Amino acid sequence: MSLPGETQAPVPASDRTPPTSRSRRRVLAFLIPLAFVAIAGSLAAALGGNPQIVPSALIGKPAPEFVLPPVQGRTLGLSSADLTGQVSLVNVFASWCTACRDEHPVFMRLKASGVVPIHGLNYKDRPRDAANWLDTLGDPYTRTGSDRDGRVAIDFGVYGVPETFVIDRHGRIAFKHVGAVTPEVLEKKILPLIRRLREQ
Fold it and tell me: How far is CA 27 from the centre of its chain?
């Protein structure tokens, strides 16, 4: 209430908002984060809660066509034509990749077992660095391809290194693993899949 002769202060715009509009805003402020959490939860459940399993639009499709020269000091390059006729692995690696060093002993043991050919896709690496890395740690690869500009890796849908693909005998991508291949991943996922693919 104002006294005679006094002018009443204008009501702030925020106070003039109808109660129903404020209620709607509060509900939306609650529902939007809730919806985000629900979507994230559904995605995690679909992926089995494992961030290393990333959906790939290329699963079941032919590997992209490419021809790459070998890593320095190697004689056999890598092309899409090399990925047909038998089940194989393609491992995307780089000398500057710490996780690649972690998984390297797994591939060295796999090579020694002779279970499956492993092909290396060397990603954005300097030729001398890649050669020194393989010369020092050992070379588990049947063939290597030097993907210096990363274009072939992009065609494979690579997010980063390391990544490993299981390729069936028809040259189709059957499985993709993001991150270092551990002995557990090899024994529980990759080797059983290789055995199934060989029976098809």
Answer: 37
How buried is 139 (Cβ within 10 angstroms: 0-12 exposed, 13-18 middle, 19+ buried)? buried
- The residue written with tokens 């077992």 in the block is 113
- 101 residue type, one letter: R
88 vs 29, 93, 107, 118, CA distance in Å? 50, 16, 13, 6
Say whether pTM exceeds 0.70. yes
Where does 34-162 show beta strands of DSSP type E?
Answer: 67-68, 78-79, 88-93, 118-123, 143-147
Looking at residue 62, what DSSP letter applies?
Answer: B
Task: Please give the CATH architecture assigned to the domain spanning 67-199.
Answer: 3-Layer(aba) Sandwich (3.40)
pLDDT band at 35 (very low <50, low <70, confident <90, very high): very low
